[in-house]
């Protein structure tokens, strides 16, 4: 926990996009967020996504003067991440995935028997899901994953804020995953 002078320096660092301050906050807070997400049915990938969303929200709030200068930024950022993960765990998307994963051991045995067939089914489900995805999501994911454009460049093309583009990318990936799982479970 830093003193209020240190917290003011951290807030100033956020406002100036000071790489040293931002890196220090990442090194202090990310391991805590990762630990929380993993202890609560998450994985590294989800922890990174949640931290990124929380970091952007924290950064925006600081830039927009919504954070008091004596606030503990590490605690604030951790709380945002914790709330985002808790919201995700309560979401319908998560509940669908949990119920689909509840049949775990049976699926594993089945996959061992028919690995090639299962891989083909997954590919087909993903392709079908891609076809059902909206044009905006297709364009965004195509720019990010295939054209390797930065989120900054994508946000300019889409004429939205960088944070909005990141959030849209996340939602599009979730939509693609959900569609793929639905197609896979319905299409066998």
Q: How would you explain this protein's 3D organization?
A:
GO terms for molecular function: sigma factor activity. It holds the Pfam family Sigma70_r2. Belongs to the sigma-70 factor family. ECF subfamily. This is Sigma-70 family RNA polymerase sigma factor. The chain has 188 residues and is mainly alpha-helical. It folds into 2 domains: 4-90, RNA polymerase sigma factor, region 2, helix turn helix motif (Rna Polymerase Sigma Factor, Chain: A), CATH 1.10.1740.10; 92-186, Arc Repressor Mutant, subunit A, CATH 1.10.10.10. The chain has 10 helices and no strands. The protein is globular and about 55 Å long. The model is unreliable at 99-114 (pLDDT under 50).
Query: What is the domain total for the residues?
Result: 2
The number of helical runs is: 10
In sequence order, what are the helices and strands, one letter per element?
A: HHHHHHHHHH
Which percent range fits the helix content?
over 70%
CATH topology of the largest domain: Arc Repressor Mutant, subunit A
Biggest sheet character: none
Radius of gyration: 20 Å
CATH homologous superfamily title of the largest domain: Winged helix-like DNA-binding domain superfamily/Winged helix DNA-binding domain
Structural class: mainly alpha
Oligomerization status of the protein chains: single chain
Shape: globular
For the termini, the CA-CA separation is: 54 Å
